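just leaving the lab so this will be short. what follows is a protein written twice so to speak, once as letters and once as structure tokens for the fold. can you read through it and tell me how you think this chain folds. anything you notice is useful, everything is just below:
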Amino acid sequence: MQERVFFLFDNLLVYCKRNVVFPLRSKTEQKTLQFKGRIPVANIEIENIEDGTADYHTSGTTVVNGWKVRNLAKNKWFVLIAKTPGEKQQWIDAIKGQKDRIQRVTAGIARETRLLMIDKGQKLHRRLTKEGKILQDHRYRLR
């Protein structure tokens, strides 16, 4: 297993690797984070791991306060572990909340687009039938 640090943004779950860097002119170490990847929240599936269990994705390691995150686009699994059960629940609720929000926004946009297309289509149909003409191409006239 590899240790990664995760950050949840509005539409993205970002994961990074911790690095320790020793600058050339300094004897003190600097701790940095190296970007490793991102997962769109819309492509995430969450699965709870019961405390004290081990499975294929945990490489046989017993997990406490853990859950699995699956990247549906790449079919890649991540096992995340929190310090406390409360923190675990906060992460799960936050990810599910973001996913639900994205689905609501997407559904709203799709509905608004559909209604706009219906409205524009009806206006165009009324205009064409009112004038009694089919669309004319003014560049090319029939002789």
